[in-house]
Amino acid sequence: MSVEITWLGHSCFAIRTGKFDLLVDPFLDDSPTAPVKATDVAADFILLTHGHFDHVTDAVAIAMRTGATVVANFEIAAWLKTQGVAEEKVVALNTGGKIDLPFGCVKMTPALHSSGLPDGSYGGAAGGYMLHLGGQRVYLAGDTALMLDMKLIGIDGIDLAVLPIGDLFTMGPDDSLEAIKLLNPKRVIPCHYNTWPPIEQDAQGWADRVHRHTAAEPIVLQPNETYSL
Ligand code: NI
Ligand code: MN
Predict the structure, then answer these.
(1) Which domain holds residue 87?
(2) Ligand number with the minimum distance to the CA of 112
(3) Block mean pLDDT (10 aa), the chain, length 229
(4) Domain CATH code at residue 56
(5) What is the pTM of this model?
(6) Which SS3 state, helix, strand or coil, does residue 65 take?
(7) What is the domain count for the chain?
(8) Residue 229 falls inside a structural domain
């Protein structure tokens, strides 16, 4: 089964696998770097890592328009229902739990971050996802600091890791190198940078350091660019 991943700016990714369209952390209409608008994206499943506005803002509208099923932690799942998303279109899980869905297996991984929702509601614990898509393991770190848990997260092997490198709100380039050493993924895609000036980073400089100091292949995407696993 092929896996195609497209960066839609910030931490938003479209992942196509088999006949399913997955959308991760939709933040499009208000994102300075998103190449598409919320009305333009396809989604069968939407995965939310945590409650911050730059990860959930367009989730409800896209879910309502497409009929997509939204996967989120327990508290965000409950909040989605208060926003009008149908009960049967929400899948709740929590840190360490996994579930088989039509496109593959989803496991919620820990993240070292916060998760308040845009309206001030409690958003539970921030997380990430380990996806088993056919034979491929894709790790979406979400917003997180460097943490030793990454050693465990990578224990079964990772074909592709998606890591934040913007600093300020998440780990930055230096800590991401240590994260890559702990996770030991075959490939790594950076995200959560260059959306706004405070999280500007030199992605090519980062990629050079990944080459020099880790065993992973860095893959720097431009917004709307696709990588095929
Ligand atoms: Ni965040
Ligand atoms: Mn964020």
Answers:
(1) 3-221
(2) 1
(3) 95 97 98 98 98 98 98 98 98 98 98 98 98 97 98 98 98 98 98 98 98 98 98
(4) 3.60.15.10
(5) 0.98
(6) helix
(7) 1
(8) no
